[in-house]
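User: Here's a protein and a ligand (iron/sulfur cluster). What would the complex look like?
Assistant: Let me lay out the input and then the predicted complex.
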Amino acid sequence: MLFEVVMSGSGGQGILFMGNLLAQAALREGRHVTFLPTYGAAMRGGTANCVVKVAAEEVASPVMHRPHAAIVLNQQSLNKFGPAVRAGGFIIANSSAIDIAGFSRDDDVRIVPVPATDIAREVAKTDRAANMVMLAAFLSLEPLVQSASIETILSASSSLSPDVIQRNVAAFRAGLPKHFAAVTVPKPAAPAAAAEMPETASPVIVEAPADAVAAEGAVEAPVFDVDGYVAPWIDSEKCSTCEECVNINPNMFAYDHRKKAYIKDPNAGPYKHLVRAAEKCSEKVIHPGYPADRSEKGIARLIEKARKFMQTGGAR
Ligand code: SF4
């Protein structure tokens, strides 16, 4: 079964780090995973968010469809993504920063208040580890991956100092054994509007247009805001190991244990390497995303070239 979770907060709350950690842990455990981050809006004062999908089978699209769960670290994120969670799903809300009293749904969704910032301050001496408490609370409710996988990846992170790793692990462990009480989201006082998503829903991640989804399992057509950052991704399952991408930049592209290519580090070279790899890829399974840094020479032309590879399935 596919499980889809959206994570959201403000820039600097480690949302993408949390999503990446979950995605890596699932990958490590042999599952099929997509990770779709965006923080373009956050740079303009909005929310940073990402969508992680984990499944036993190949995942057709990384685009948010109807998440089973949301992990929200600020009020704006609850307002934006709370309504998107499917009926029967749940929301982990950072109650140190969110007032859940005004949130309502006319269907069956649970909300789990977790005082993550307070816990992080207490055990890790920093607000910034609240994301780890939230991830642990999520895994307590939905054991999508083993906590040991998270800790192993966290401990091996070369981008964090030993002190930061230690604080993150402490915050993660503090969230694990706690059984935070879930409460049912109250029904709205007045009949809800017909629309399932609010008008304030993310301009970056949107559900595919209805006519693009012909049948269950059909490929969704992502719609992206070209002004914002969209991370690159590879439909790794379809990779034929032709070596084109790893030859272009072995620091940016690598093979996993199955000899399928994945994006090792999107920042390990210029954006043109991503675009060139997408063009050279024999299976057309590389999606170069859209860059955060627009200062690269010829960037407008590169983005224009990238566009045709941003539909699932790529350009033929
Ligand atoms: S270029 Fe495409 S098919 Fe070739 S190794 Fe890279 S992802 Fe796989």
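Summary: Confidence is low (pLDDT under 50) at residues 191-225, 312-316.
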